[in-house]
């Protein structure tokens, strides 16, 4: 009963609040009219309910002008400030009117950047749009029109996991790209990359199109800046590469740094087989037998292979010792140091210096050798224990048998 009274009391308070002269509902004749229409004329009113602008309290007239309180067609007259939908060439300035106004945007989101329009003007898209090419991407092509979602919304076309598909809408369309002579396989290659795999697994910090190309200031990385782009994430790799023989040579020949070995969109997870002179080596695409680069790659490959083999042998013997019940935690710790050494050695490959790689693989070999010796000792001790146990069992059986014979002998004697 008390709960019912509370509900009724709340309803009365709400009714009085709505009926009071100080409360007014924002009228929007645009939605009232367009929501009754079908097709393209009715869709904006239906979509706008989930739009981030609607959720911020904006209405149709904030963008399109007009009089939202007028139910007649006169609401859309130029005299009432109605400006309708902007032409494609005017879209960036149309959005930028608010989004470039810092004092205005702080009312809604103090953290939101207000340099999107100026960034867009530097992009390939912005520059071509300025020259009259209305087929290039503008704000609405990526963000949507009346159903714009927050960037943090996983349904948004600009959410990290959706960016590649959004870019592919144009860049994978051979008809759209034919005029620009741009390949249309970038998205397909990217989906095979290690970056896409990590992103699909839920790590939204993994690179996608806008990570390397920019978002509003989208520009293809130049040949000389590719290493800088990769280096924003792979800092240590970039530093080693710049100091390597390849750093200066690639710059002199105008080669695109990281891309030369790792590709650009289809960046696969590297393996030790990439280094050396085998069939999967990337070194032999430039180097031939007899030159210094070939010899360096061969030596680095051999050192990595030795360390890999040594670690595998140590792992096998320790696993065998563990199955027999032996405690090998100290040896496991020694092997973990060897594993750490090969990880660092794979990074040091970017120096292209066998001596630098050897500084890491040599201690790694020593650590795995110690782990192997510890595993051998553990197996030897296990064998001794088994032999000792076997002898003990024999003595125990013999003692039991002797005791049984003695008991039988005692029982066979007649009692006095």
Distance between the termini: 100 Å
Assign the structural class, choosing from mainly alpha, mainly beta, alpha/beta, alpha+beta, or little secondary structure.
mainly alpha
- The DSSP helix count reads 22
Average pLDDT over all residues: 89
Give the overall shape, derived from the CA principal axes. Answer: elongated
Question: C-alpha Rg, in Å?
Answer: 37 Å
Number of strands: 0
What fraction, in percent, of the residue positions are helical? 55-70%
Give me the strand/helix succession: HHHHHHHHHHHHHHHHHHHHHH
Highest-level CATH class of the domain at 292-387: Mainly Alpha
Strand percentage lies at under 5%
Describe this structure in words.
Among the domains are: 221-269, no CATH class; 292-387, Butyryl-CoA Dehydrogenase, subunit A, domain 3, CATH 1.20.140. It has helices at 2-19, 29-34, 39-47, 52-55, 60-64, 91-99, 102-105, 116-122, 124-130, 139-143, 163-171, 174-177, 186-191, 194-200, 209-213, 226-231, 235-243, 245-253, 259-262, 292-323, 329-348, 354-412. The longest helix has 59 residues, at 354-412. The chain has 416 residues and is an all-alpha fold. Helices cover 59% and strands 0% of the residues. Residues 1-24 have low confidence and may be disordered.
Layout of helices and strands, plus pairs?
Layout (H helix, E strand, L loop, with lengths): L1 H18 L9 H6 L4 H9 L4 H4 L4 H5 L26 H9 L2 H4 L10 H7 L1 H7 L8 H5 L19 H9 L2 H4 L8 H6 L2 H7 L8 H5 L12 H6 L3 H9 L1 H9 L5 H4 L29 H32 L5 H20 L5 H59 L4
């Amino acid at each position: 009963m008390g709960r019912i009274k509370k509900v009724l009391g709340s309803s009365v308070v709400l009714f009085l609040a709505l009926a009071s002269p100080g409360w007014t509902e924002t009228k929007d004749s645009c939605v009232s009219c367009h929501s009754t229409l079908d097709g393209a004329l009715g869709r904006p009113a239906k979509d706008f309910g989930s739009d981030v602008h609607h959720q911020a309290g904006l209405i149709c007239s904030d963008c399109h002008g007009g009089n939202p309180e007028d139910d007649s067609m006169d609401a859309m007259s130029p005299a009432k400030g109605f400006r309708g939908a902007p032409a494609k060439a005017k879209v960036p300035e149309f959005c930028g009117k608010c989004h470039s106004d810092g004092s205005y945007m702080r009312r809604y989101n103090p953290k939101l950047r207000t340099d999107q329009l100026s960034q867009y003007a530097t992009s390939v898209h912005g520059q071509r749009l300025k020259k009259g090419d209305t087929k290039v991407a503008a704000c609405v092509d990526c963000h949507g029109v009346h159903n714009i979602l927050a960037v943090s919304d996983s349904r948004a076309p600009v959410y990290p996991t959706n960016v590649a598909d959004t870019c592919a809408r144009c860049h994978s369309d051979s008809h759209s790209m034919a005029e620009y002579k741009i390949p249309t396989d970038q998205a397909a290659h990217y989906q095979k990359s290690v970056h896409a795999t990590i992103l699909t697994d839920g790590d939204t910090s993994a690179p996608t199109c806008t990570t390397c190309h920019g978002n509003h200031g989208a520009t293809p990385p130049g040949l000389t800046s590719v290493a800088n782009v990769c280096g924003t994430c792979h800092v240590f790799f970039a530093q080693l590469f710049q100091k390597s023989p390849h750093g200066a040579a690639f710059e002199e020949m105008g080669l695109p740094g990281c891309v030369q070995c790792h590709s650009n969109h289809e960046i696969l997870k590297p393996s030790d087989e990439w280094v050396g002179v085998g069939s999967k080596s990337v070194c032999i695409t430039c180097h031939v037998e007899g030159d210094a680069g070939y010899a360096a790659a061969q030596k680095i490959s051999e050192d990595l292979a030795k360390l890999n083999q040594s670690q595998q042998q140590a792992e096998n013997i320790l696993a065998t010792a563990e199955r027999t019940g032996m405690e090998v935690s100290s040896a496991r710790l020694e092997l973990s140091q060897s594993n750490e050494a090969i990880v660092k050695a794979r990074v040091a490959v970017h120096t292209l210096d066998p001596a630098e790689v050897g500084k890491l693989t040599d201690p790694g070999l020593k650590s795995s050798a110690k782990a192997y010796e510890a595993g051998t000792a553990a197996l030897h001790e296990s064998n001794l224990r088994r032999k000792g146990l076997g002898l003990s069992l024999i003595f125990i059986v013999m003692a039991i048998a002797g005791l049984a014979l003695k008991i039988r002998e005692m029982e066979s004697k007649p009692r006095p």
